[in-house]
Amino acid sequence: MNKSEFIEIINAPIQKTWDVLFNQYGDIQIHNPTMLSSNYLNGATKGELDCVRHCQFTDKYFVDEKITHIKANNCFTIKVTKHNLPFVNQMSATYELTSLSENVTELKMTSFNSFSPSFMKYMMRGQMSKSLLKHLFGLKYFVETGKTVGIKNYSDVFTNYQSI
Q1: pLDDT tens, N- to C-terminus, the chain (164 residues)
Q2: How far apart are CA 116 and CA 72, in angstroms?
Q3: How many domains is the chain partitioned into structurally?
């Protein structure tokens, strides 16, 4: 599996960041500008172990992601259980939160993926990294401001937003 790490500093307490990232797990579209929609599956209503969400990127492409491990209030792992992304074989990610001060949280996302054929990792790495960075920035923006960011306003928000 290929490994990539991304870090985002969020100007908010760790609990507020956890609430959005984990407790609102099935509502990721409110802060991920690469997503059209998302929803809980199998009757879930909040983030918890074995909870599954369906994420729709376009009318055509989707992933279903399951929470497979939790370390309360600071770490959880998700695994893609179903998808139709071209060339992608397996995907998973771990989100880790660290309190840097009372109102500053570090979010580290470690992404793991594999491709078929394997040489596609060189072609897909940049595109996947851009999408994950948009997701993390969108999370930061939402947690800090309470405002959603989507595909239509992402460029303006990214260009003009200055952290609190």
Answers
A1: 889 999 999 999 999 999 999 999 999 999 999 999 999 999 999 999 999 999 999 999 999 999 999 998 899 999 999 999 998 899 999 999 999 999 999 999 999 998 888 877 777 777 888 999 999 999 999 999 999 998 889 999 999 998 76
A2: 34
A3: 1
- Domain that residue 52 falls in: 2-156
Examine residue 164 and state whether it is found in any structural domain, yes or no: no
How many Cβ atoms from other residues are within 10 Å of residue 159's Cβ? Answer: 7
Q: Is the peptide bond before 33 cis (omega within 30 degrees of 0)?
A: no
Measured between alpha carbons, how far is 41 from 52 in angstroms, rounded to an integer? 5
Structure tokens belonging to residue 32: 């991920």
CB 54 within 8 A of CB 41: yes
CATH number at residue 146: 3.30.530.20
